[in-house]
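Write out the 3D structure for:
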Amino acid sequence: GWRDVTRAVHAAGGRVIIQLMHVGRIAHPSNTSHHRRPVAPSAIKPRGLMLTATGPLEMPEPRALSTTEVAETVAKFADAARLAIEAGADGVEIHGANGYLVQQFLSSNANQRTDRYGGSRDNRIRFAVEIATAVAEAIGPERVGLHVSPGSRFNDIVENDIVQLYDALLIGLAPLGLAYLHVVHHGDEAVLARFRARWHSVLIVNRVDADLDTRFADIAKGRADMISIGNLPLANPDPVASIRIDAPPSTTS
């Protein structure tokens, strides 16, 4: 199925980057065929509801991954990346944002581990760096991007040490030579400036809830090399055409 998609996109002159994600604790057994508890860095229940076939339900307490299972999860990301390239994708983006598994390991609240993946900042970034390393080794770093959302509280995430944490993450990623970093920007200009100064390949910025002119200004002013438009295509089937003719985008989806 993905080969059909990638062939069609390439035939139209486009490129395909497939995002690889693991939701971690943001899940509910009712939405799975196996009905098992979700997994996470630690057995800490997230606040919030999950939509299920029977309506919104509280998310359950997850099961903590063992140290061995963490390594197995890293390997699964690399396997998924290989399959994406076999299916014709031009690259993959590791989803490390929005409160899902990679960010759960980075966080101050979802990660209370006492092994090498918890506690210190170097330990909390380890999972993200290991995934990026494994995926880069599997398909080449020039085909790999990472998506992050520093300071986001989406899906009950808390990061008490944003600046120091993401500085450490960028230091850990630097030797890999990844293709790009994709940052969800929630308005902290100082944090964005630190990313711009410390990240030496392509920086993609998604400025949350900003209009297109503000987003384009990030490129014009050197704050970003590229912008992403997030959920705009959900309500606009051809957003590029709308932008070219300066048509106001629909905001409903």
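The two ends are 25 Å apart (CA to CA).
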